[in-house]
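Blinded run. Sample ID left blank on purpose so nobody reads anything into the name before looking at the predicted structure. Input follows.
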Amino acid sequence: MRDTNTLLAEVLELPEPDRAEVAARILESLDDIHEGTVDEAWAHELERRAAAVDSGEVVTSDWNVIRQRIERDIFGR
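Blinded prediction complete.
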């Protein structure tokens, strides 16, 4: 079995499209491992934010008002 450094050196010698394919496949294999914990963390964060809005802890703003402020501040309109 090859060690990691040898394998990495061989992969880095591949043409760019092949390296991209290897990278994508490796990342896909990692997504399966962490997908549940990431989904769980996002669900918790969404619940936390919704509770903050419901309790009045967080004040929301109308998008049209925010957009007008951005346009005024950045674009001078």
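Unblinding after everyone has recorded impressions. The mean pLDDT is 89.
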